[in-house]
Design goal:
Blueprint lengths: L12 H10 L4 E5 L5 E5 H17 L7 E5 L4 H9 L6 E4 L6 H11 L1 E6 L4 H11 L5 E4 L14 E4 H7 L14 E6 L9 E5 H11 L12 E4 L11 H8 L2 E4 L6 H10 L4 E4 L1 H14 L8 E4 L6 H9 L3 E7 L6 E4 L11 H8 L4 E2 L3 E6 L14 E7 L21 E9 L5 E6 L4 E3 L2 E3 L1 H9 L4 E11 L3 E10 L7 H6 L13 E4 L13 H8 L9
Length: 544
């Protein structure tokens, strides 16, 4: 016997429709590439999204067709999240920080027939135009005036605002199979070519519901949210959906993620909760301290993408801001675990509390994790045993887009994340390392993440990375690479002494290499692959 309740498909278009109807006066503030600031309400943007849906028809974009974007976090990109997916077409958000050859590869692999481009990214498009000419038939410049691009013959060029002005607002959001694809986003390509992950309306809507629970983001209508997580990668951690779902105001930073720009935005726009990777927050705090600034409204910062450090947590605490930790990946929809207290941890103080806060968190409803040994046998949740981290749930990918069975989940839907982790008795996961970043020295494992956390807590260290360097006796030994803070002075002996008593002596790196900067991936993570290429033979070469 079926229940007697109404049945409505889980459509992402319902989010913007709800925001306009119930939270019409909440605003979306965009810091544009040309330096201007744009303000609009959800009512205004929902109307424009319906016009954009009409534009899809004008451009002959059909159900399931891919529409690419080369764009920053601003209101036009936000409109595309709804105006494309809401019609049944698929939004292909392209990470503009990737190498040009990878950008071209993604557009071609996704088969995006139409490409929306921010004016500031036109040079990037020009550089790859010949490579994508056989795929892209229409280019829409996201501006209010036409731009001459000089693209190959056959690529039609349009002006975004001209198309919007010529469209009407009579479009009615359709319902269709909620398992239909909505957004096609690609991994950051740290191992081989980027891989496509195709989200569905159902998965993204369910995850947006889930992250709005009190033990995860817990967003409220009175919040003012700043996503420094990019809309061109992994749907900016669900924020284009989860923020309007509750009617909170959305502050979109465009391409301005430097410390001074973020501080101005946070203070001028009264931001209460901000989201970003640790490298962004390190630059923000450096500016805050050097400028002697204060934080008037900011109360929470979510840091994800890579492990946070004790120093990051403690420094934000000095300004009255709580750092919250999350874990996920593009393949996981993209958020899987969030660090919120349970009964056993809620009263912890001092170092005991900090130790828990540094963990990546625990799965929320709709996602599950486990760790297994090399034979696939599940390991105990005791906070000590570590193994390969697997994940499954309503938001997880089952296989990559157009990659056959490569990287597919197993028959029980467990997806291998590529991380090595522990899980404690309260369900908190702590990443030990990426599988490829673990250091095996003399047959024993060493965690590069643990060593980086200790190194980063030294007051002279701005950023640290630890890699496995080949060693003639021990096979691999940890090598510490350090960027010092401005005006800071510390030698190798002082930094290595800092590890004493914090880890086993044989874990301590043999040497320190001081570098002016460390390489990062297109999503702000340390690029260990590049570091291993450059420094992997450091010990065998006898480099001092």
């Amino acid at each position: 016997m079926l229940g007697l309740m109404q049945s409505h498909k889980l459509m992402l278009s319902s989010v913007i429709r709800h925001a306009a109807r119930q939270h019409g006066h909440s605003e979306v503030v965009s810091f544009m590439s040309d330096g201007s600031v744009h303000r609009a309400t959800y009512v205004e943007l929902e109307r424009r999204c319906r016009r954009l849906a009409r534009v899809m028809q004008t451009l002959k974009v059909g159900f399931g067709d891919r529409v690419g974007t080369l764009a920053w976090n601003d209101y036009r990109h936000f409109e595309l999240y709804y105006g494309v997916s809401g019609t049944g077409a698929i939004l292909n958000t392209v990470n503009v920080r990737l190498a040009p050859e990878d950008v071209a590869y993604i557009i071609n692999h996704a088969q995006s027939k139409v490409l929306f481009v921010d004016p500031s990214l036109v040079p990037l498009l020009r550089g790859i135009a010949n490579e994508v000419a056989a795929t892209v038939r229409d280019v829409v410049v996201m501006s209010d005036k036409p731009v001459e691009l000089g693209l190959p013959a056959g690529m039609r060029v349009h002006c975004y605002e001209d198309l919007i002005a010529a469209a009407d607002e009579s479009y009615v959001w359709p319902e269709f199979d909620e398992e239909s694809g909505s957004v096609l986003t690609y991994t950051s390509g740290t191992t081989g070519r980027p891989k496509g992950v195709l989200y569905s309306h159902r998965a993204s809507l369910l995850q947006s519901y889930a992250v709005n629970s009190a033990d995860v983001f817990g967003l409220r209508a009175v919040d003012r949210i700043l996503p420094c997580a990019s809309m061109y990668h992994a749907t900016a951690w669900t924020l284009p959906y989860s923020v309007p779902m509750v009617g909170a105001s959305l502050i979109l930073p465009g391409r301005f993620l430097d410390g001074p720009s973020l501080y101005r935005m946070i203070e001028s726009e009264r931001v209460t909760f901000a989201f970003g990777v640790p490298t962004i927050w390190t630059g923000f705090l450096d500016h805050l301290k050097s400028a002697g600034g204060k934080l008037s409204t900011l109360k929470r910062v979510l840091s994800g993408g890579s492990a946070i450090t004790r120093q990051l947590v403690e420094t934000f605490r000095e300004y009255g801001v709580r750092v919250e930790h999350a874990w996920g990946m593009t393949e996981c929809g993209p958020v899987t675990a969030y660090n919120a207290p349970v009964a056993a941890t809620k009263d912890l103080q001092g170092d005991a509390l900090l130790e828990v806060m540094l963990r990546q968190g625990r799965p929320f409803f709709g996602s599950d994790i486990k760790i297994v040994d090399e034979n696939g046998v599940e390991l105990p949740r005791d906070g000590k045993a570590f193994g390969a981290l697997l994940a499954r749930g309503a938001y997880m990918t089952r296989q990559y887009y157009r990659q056959g069975e490569e990287g597919a989940a197993d028959p029980d839907n467990w997806f291998a994340t590529g991380d090595v982790a522990t899980i404690d008795e309260n369900g908190f996961v702590q990443l030990v390392d990426r599988t490829k970043d673990l250091i095996k020295s003399g047959g024993e494992w060493i965690s590069s993440i643990a060593l980086e956390d200790i190194a980063s807590s030294h007051p002279a260290v701005a950023e640290a990375a630890v890699i496995a360097a080949a060693h003639s006796k021990w096979v691999e030994r940890p090598l510490l690479l350090v960027v010092l803070r401005d005006q800071a002075d510390a030698d190798s002996a002082a930094l290595l002494e800092h590890f004493k008593g914090k880890v086993a002596n044989w874990w301590i790196p043999d040497q320190v290499v001081f570098v002016p900067q460390l390489p990062h991936t297109a999503v702000g993570k340390l690029n260990k692959r590049e570091l291993r290429t450059q420094y992997g033979e450091h010990y065998n070469a006898g480099t001092e």
